[in-house]
Amino acid sequence: MLTCLNTATTRGKPLVDDIRLCGEVGFEGIEIDTGKLDEFVEAGGTIADLRALLVESRVQCVGLMAFAFTPFGDCAEQIERIRRYGPVCRDLGGTMLLAFIAQQPEPGTPRERVIEQAARAATSYAEAAHESGLKVALEPIGGREFMGGPEDALAVVGASGHPALGIMVDTFHYYKSGVLPEHVARIPAEQILIVHINDAEDLSADILVDANRLYPGLGILPLHGYLEALAQTGWDGFLSVELFREEYWLDEHASIIHNAKTTLDAVIAETFGKA
Fold first, then answer.
1. Radius of gyration of the chain (CA)
2. Within 13 Å, how many C-alpha atoms sit on residue 201's CB side?
3. Residues ≥6 apart with Cβ < 8 Å to 59
4. Taking the domains of the chain in order of start, what are their residue ranges?
5. Rounded to two decimals, what is the model's pTM?
6. What is the mean pLDDT of residues 111-125?
7. d(CA 268, CA 131)
């Protein structure tokens, strides 16, 4: 499995330093927030500059995030964003765009209709991304009634049938939705485009929020079980550390990235018995 940093983990820090520091600590990939990307360009940077820095740092741009998946309303704005950022992601060497579920169906809507509507919208997202040779990873959000875990996301991907669609796995969101490692082991590896790995404080799942996330291995999530389950599927892609903790954001930039890498490395080593 490959190591990756999601730049939400370093909110408020410059993107160029994210890339440079990721290279220094040995992260193999980086997920880039479009907000940070915009700040870089608005300050006079170019996509060519950024690509050169990625190459120099030996860090792969895995993809851009995040796009709101709004399957029960107007998708036009988000599809336009995909068309805007798709070529940029491609030019940076990325392969996917992350779309998180941002809307719930009307209560009482039959599941068949919900899946049909969501699949139709997901197909539109995928078609827009495919114009740039990219895929769209649908992200479940923990605790949501629809797409709180992989079951609904996989149903949407299956109903769509578009080859540019897949799902993402997030240890925090899956834990909140009661998704166990044995459930993850049943996900087809070819449908998993990326995995977000994070830990959480010792609180009940129903009250956990993003601010309760911790570096991998410092909390109570069954990370070893999730990684073992992923290995059982044959999946071997990017594990991306994604944290939204203000305490971490206030730390020194180098410390955040060092801590993210060392804790992730430790969890991987403990899971698979590697030194």
1. 18
2. 11
3. 19, 22, 23, 27, 28, 29, 30
4. 2-103+111-272
5. 0.95
6. 97
7. 36
- Report the CATH fold assignment for 2-103+111-272: TIM Barrel (3.20.20)
Q: Tokens 């940076």 correspond to what residue?
A: 92
Helix, strand, coil distribution of the chain in percent, nearest 5 = 50, 20, 35
Q: 110 — phi, psi (to 5°)?
A: -55, 140
249: left (phi over 0), alpha (psi -120 to 50) or beta: alpha
Q: Which residues contact 264 (CB under 8 A, 6 or more apart)?
A: 3, 197, 215, 216, 239, 241
Residue 192 corresponds to which tokens in the numbers above? Answer: 């998993």
User: Residues of 127-146 as b/e, b for ≥16 C-beta within 10 angstroms?
Assistant: bbbbebebbbbbbbbbbbeb
pLDDT per position as a tens digit, 124-153: 999 999 999 999 999 999 999 999 999 999
8 Å CB contact between 242 and 6: yes
Write down how long the chain is: 275
Residue-wise pLDDT for 187-220, tens only, equals: 999 999 999 999 999 999 999 999 999 999 999 9
69, 138 Cβ separation under 8 angstroms: yes
- Provide the residue type at 87 as one letter: P
Q: How many whole angstroms from its chain centre is CA 197? A: 9
- Helices 253-272 + 15-25 axis angle, to 10: 40
